[in-house]
Specification:
The chain has 28 helices and 31 strands. Helix content is about 40%, strand content about 15%. By secondary structure, the protein is of the alpha/beta class. The strands form 9 sheets. Strands 6, 7, 8, 9, 10, 11, 12, 13, 14 and 15 form a 10-stranded mixed sheet that branches.
Length: about 950
């Protein structure tokens, strides 16, 4: 101590080593990020990174293509950010991790937008030349590719934006046709008539992935079919078999009735009629019939069951050979034909009447049962949902999805009522029903000639020159024991890693139960099914020379080469065009996107290469994941991916689906403009995205707060390391225990984070970035800011620059800086770049060139962890005991507190008063923790209360020695 204490009023600020940095506390991301983005583009960050990782093992995340039709929404943002986080993390691991963004450019989404413009101008799309319409679709898609590209880039998504893949590029269209022809050459293609999901509004077949289900209210009807023959139960002749349906429009196409062979049936008399019904359903059926008179609502109607006398009882098997007549049989022709009773194992007594009317044009079960009994479709409903003009009943009328047309008072029910066939009708049946997810209109099942890829047919050896398989699918291939497409796909599923693991159940069940793949569409904008079908045999032509000419034409002019082709030239001299039908249907867009692995992954990286990862929303189990699986299994015998990650959907802050009508849409572009991309990225990385996630003002406020804390951690590190040099670095062996403990925590964090990003680590947590982000944030907030930084502020500010403890602290800070900025770079790439350039400014360098930090596994020390876990626990208890005094302003800070505690803290080699940031601590005295104001005086420089300070403002020994020196 000096003989003359310095006065408290003396200013020692200039003698304290305060952190120095220009890195601002206020982020201003919305303003800074565009400038950083421009710098990355100018320096060609993506291209330079490819150069630096050249020759390394690749990690390929194959981008699932969004539709090029509108501004991006939150689902797009979430998906692209998650992909970018993964790609950047793999690059950080040292992999060559390219990212080729892509777009789906064909199909109804684009056509529908062009048609909307036509409708506004009162134009008819069918009157526009096909070539002109296709050119407009191409221009529309190209424009939105450009718009979305800039929006994705603004999210910080790094990729080959100068050369993305587009399914409408000529080479892509040629490859898609080439993939189709592989199916044709191996016999995995046929044309047949089956009921498929059909949109009368869009006038095309739809795939399951293009359909969504909505709750609606439909018309339910009970219709009577008079029994005219019943060889096993003659007492039924003259009675009426009752069917129930919620699709009255299928009655004009009815051709048979189905019964359950083991179902118990009864003949009852009601309102003067004898009715054949399943015994279990008699009460509910008669209750419906009792309401028919005034049609009161079910809620108002009596629930009393009408009495009915049972006249006959038997099994469904007794109905074999029975025949009924259609209620509109008086029309003659089709309607006068007998309606046979057919045994159907799908008939149940869950609802209805226990008898099911069969319309093979409009149902899978109907089609299969009727076909097995020699009954064929009649194609009565046309592509726009109207009955064809020559149909005897309701010809030219419709549409069949019009509620008024099929309603209780519509022409179908009215005609049935007048014919005496309508027993009950009500517009009150609530159920889930399929809709087109583009037009939002109801769809129907409609039998039309379509092209299919069979799921259960053995592929043949390459078909002989000049002919392909017959148009009729025939199940197993003759003499060929090769695996079917379903078997190949299911085998591939078992050899793929699914993240989360439970998602395998969904894709497996979908593939196990799916029907043959309908790949044809009756539209204009897409890749044509480039086949020639022999007019007499129905065989499609398989000739490698012809196929080679087709592919060459596509490479030169794309799909337009087919629609405007000289087909005789493509066929060559060996075939006469007059003998062949040119197929002009286009491919299902899911076949397009399912083929992208061939011209993106294999096309850019070599034949046989497959993606390490596919990543999309959970709806893609029936969409892109499945179409890619089927396409690759059919042409390569395996999946195109090693792993698949499924994420949920983005909902509003209350967990509701976003919609303009609800006014709850959270626009990612608005979030970026107001808060910056890094805030949105923190939200994505923090969510448990394996399930549906929420986003709203409160959620984003939480993300902003988490970001702010991490930013302030970097700000502190930059300031504390402002003049750090290698000469100051201290070996780990010479460091105090606290520094070695922090290195232990860093090594543990490193292992946790690596388990998320490194597949080779074999962790169950792979790609669980919510775990990664939480661990990183917790470490920064709890272990660093609230613990390590807090304890060592005194050392940093007031110890001599040469002091070993200060050198050790700054050495660890430097290690932490290099680790944390790398860990954070995939999550907040803009801020990580700003942090890195703040310390190491270099126009030619970037934080994103860096690789995973070197963290010595020898830093792990479990005994140190156990000891310091107890120390930290006791420190927390001390802080909790101090807080009331601070709140009541008895003391201003913990530095003014004297603490007595009953427990002994394992503090050998540790100054627990320094760790707890108090004046002094006495342990092993009394019970619990007692806190009182210290009677020591405060050092005027370091503000610690110490015994050698004789009065407030005087200097402690350390500060006095440092200033004297």
């Amino acid at each position: 101590m000096t003989d003359q204490p310095r006065q408290e009023t003396q200013d020692y600020k200039s003698t304290v080593f305060l952190p120095v940095t220009d890195f601002p506390m206020k982020a201003g991301l919305a303003q800074k990020e565009p400038a950083i983005l421009a710098r990355w583009e100018e320096m060609d960050l993506y291209g330079k990174l490819r150069e630096r990782r050249k020759g390394r093992r690749r990690f390929i995340l194959h981008d699932g293509p969004p539709y090029a039709n509108g501004d991006i929404h939150m689902g797009h943002a979430m998906n692209k950010v998650l992909k970018d986080i993964i790609v950047r993390s793999q690059s950080l691991l040292g992999y060559d991790a390219p990212y080729i963004p892509g777009w789906d450019c064909h199909g109804l989404p684009i056509e529908w937008k062009i048609e909307e413009e036509y409708r506004k101008k009162k134009q008819n799309k069918d009157e526009v030349p096909a070539q002109e319409f296709r050119a407009e679709c191409r221009a529309y898609a190209d424009r939105w590719v450009g718009v979305q590209k800039e929006q994705f880039k603004r999210l910080g998504v790094m990729g080959d934006w100068d050369d993305p893949y587009l399914t409408m590029k000529f080479d892509a269209e040629a490859t898609i046709v080439g993939e189709l022809l592989k199916f044709a050459e191996s016999g995995q293609l046929y044309r047949g008539a089956k009921p498929v999901m059909w949109s009368p509004v869009e006038k095309t077949a739809l795939a399951e992935a293009e359909v969504e289900y909505e709750d609606i209210v439909s018309t339910q009807v009970d219709v009577a079919f008079e029994i005219v023959e019943a060889p096993n139960a003659p007492e039924l002749v003259g009675a009426h078999a009752v069917i129930w349906t919620t699709t009255p429009w299928t009655i004009p196409v009815n051709q048979a009735l189905a019964y359950g062979p083991e179902v118990d049936y009864v003949l009852v008399e009601s309102n003067g009629r004898k009715l054949l019904l399943a015994e279990a359903l008699v009460p509910s059926v008669l209750l419906r019939h009792s309401r028919e008179g005034g049609n009161p609502s079910p809620d108002a109607a009596s629930t009393a069951t009408p009495e009915a006398e049972i006249l006959w009882r038997g099994k469904g098997a007794d109905l074999a050979g029975a025949v009924a007549c259609h209620p509109m049989h008086a029309l003659g022709g089709f309607f006068a034909k007998p309606r046979p009773f057919l045994a159907g194992d799908f008939v149940t007594t869950d609802a209805g009447t226990g008898l099911v009317h069969m319309a093979p044009d409009h149902g899978e079960d109907d089609f299969a049962l009727c076909k097995a009994n020699g009954i064929n479709p009649v194609f009565a409903v046309e592509n726009d949902g109207k009955y064809r003009e020559d149909w005897l009943w309701l010809g030219g009328q419709g549409s069949v999805i019009n509620p008024k047309f099929v309603g209780r008072d519509g022409p179908i029910c009215t005609d049935l009522r007048e014919a005496g066939g309508l027993l009950a009708a009500s517009d009150d049946f609530k159920h889930s029903y399929p809709h087109s997810w583009r037009s939002k209109a109801k769809i129907i099942f409609r039998c039309t000639p379509q092209w299919f890829i069979p799921m259960d047919q053995n592929p043949s050896p390459l078909a002989g020159e000049g002919r392909g398989p017959l148009a009729q699918a025939s199940g197993k291939g003759e003499g060929d024991n090769a695996a079917t497409l379903r078997e190949l796909a299911l085998n591939s599923i078992e050899h793929t890693r699914w993240v989360p693991e439970r998602s395998i159940n969904r894709i497996r069940s979908m593939v196990e139960g799916r029907p043959d793949w309908v790949i044809s569409r009756q539209r204009a904008w897409g890749v044509p099914i480039a086949l020639y079908v022999h007019r007499k045999t129905g065989d499609y032509l398989v000739d490698k020379s012809v196929n080679a000419r087709i592919l060459e034409a596509f490479r030169g002019a794309g799909a337009d080469a087919w629609f405007g082709a000289d087909h005789q030239a493509l066929l060559g001299p060996d075939y006469d065009l007059n003998d062949y039908e040119v197929v002009n249907d286009i491919l299902d867009v899911w076949f397009d996107s399912g083929s992208t692995h061939s011209f993106v992954v294999e096309g850019r990286y070599g034949e046989g290469v497959r993606a390490d990862l596919y990543l999309e929303g959970s709806d893609q189990h029936r969409g892109w994941f499945q179409s890619s699986l089927l396409e690759s299994s059919g042409t390569r015998g395996r999946a195109p991916y090693d792993a698949v990650l499924t994420h949920g959907f983005a909902l509003d802050g209350q967990g509701r689906k976003m919609s303009k009508s609800l006014g709850n849409v959270v626009d990612p572009l608005k979030v970026i403009a107001e808060s910056g991309s890094d805030i949105l990225r923190v939200w994505v990385a923090s969510t448990d995205y394996f399930d549906d996630v929420r986003i709203g003002k409160e959620v984003l406020a939480g993300s902003s707060d988490a970001y702010r804390k991490l930013r302030n951690t970097f700000r502190y590190l930059l300031g504390a390391l402002s003049d750090f040099s290698e000469e100051e670095r201290l070996p780990v062996a010479e460091m105090p225990e606290l520094e070695r403990y922090m290195l232990h925590l860093l090594a543990r964090l490193d292992a946790d984070l690596r388990s998320v990003v490194d597949k080779a680590a074999g962790s169950e947590n792979w790609l669980e970035f919510s775990r990664y982000t939480r661990a990183l944030m917790d470490f920064a907030n709890s272990d660093l800011s609230a613990f390590f930084f807090d304890i060592r502020k005194d050392c940093l500010y007031c110890d001599a620059k040469s002091d070993p403890k200060r050198r050790a602290y700054r050495t660890v800070l430097d290690t932490l800086f290099h680790a944390l900025v790398r860990y954070a770079a995939p999550i907040i790439p803009f801020t990580a770049e700003e942090v890195w350039q703040s310390r190491y400014p270099n126009a030619e360098e970037s934080v994103h060139f860096l690789e995973w930090p070197t963290v010595d596994a020898a830093w792990l020390d479990q005994s140190l962890d156990d000891k310091w876990a107890e120390i930290r626990n006791q420190r927390d208890q001390v802080n909790e005991a101090i807080e009331p005094l601070r709140r009541e302003k008895v003391i201003r800070s913990s530095l003014e507190a004297d603490v007595t505690m009953g427990e002994l803290v394992p503090s050998d080699g540790v100054n627990f008063a320094e760790i707890a940031i108090v004046a002094r601590i006495e342990m092993g005295k009394g019970d619990g923790i007692v806190v009182k104001p210290s009677d020591w005086h405060k050092c005027g420089r370091c503000w610690r209360l110490l015994p050698e300070v004789e009065e407030d403002g005087a200097l402690c020994n350390r500060c006095d020695e440092l200033l004297s020196a």
